[in-house]
Task: inverse folding
């Protein structure tokens, strides 16, 4: 059929037109979404400690790992240790390094308490 090429060209131009219209309409929304994702990435995890472990355990690092204050009681330290170890135990898929650091933090804080 001689008119098939003409029909296909028209359909192609229509598809390009609708695609351009779609992009123009939703480009502004996509830009806003991108800005929201950027702020989420920087602000959502700001309450957590960022950074690696120190060579030697300090009181500050131990408190950050367990999520307790430096003046916390022995019971609060043990409770925080248990809660965190349940989530990060190597038998449940947690990292052995993280588990070691959690135990080291508990031992450090317990040894510094009277």
Result:
């Amino acid at each position: 059929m001689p008119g098939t090429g003409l029909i296909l060209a028209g359909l192609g131009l229509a598809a390009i037109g609708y695609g351009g219209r779609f992009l123009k309409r939703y480009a502004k929304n996509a830009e806003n979404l991108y800005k929201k994702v950027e702020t989420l990435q920087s602000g959502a995890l700001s309450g957590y400690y960022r950074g690696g472990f120190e060579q030697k355990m300090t009181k500050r690092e131990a408190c950050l790992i367990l999520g307790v204050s430096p003046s916390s009681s022995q019971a609060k330290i043990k409770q925080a240790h248990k809660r965190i170890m349940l989530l990060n135990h190597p038998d449940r898929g947690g990292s052995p390094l993280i588990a070691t650091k959690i135990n080291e933090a508990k031992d450090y804080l317990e040894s510094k308490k009277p």
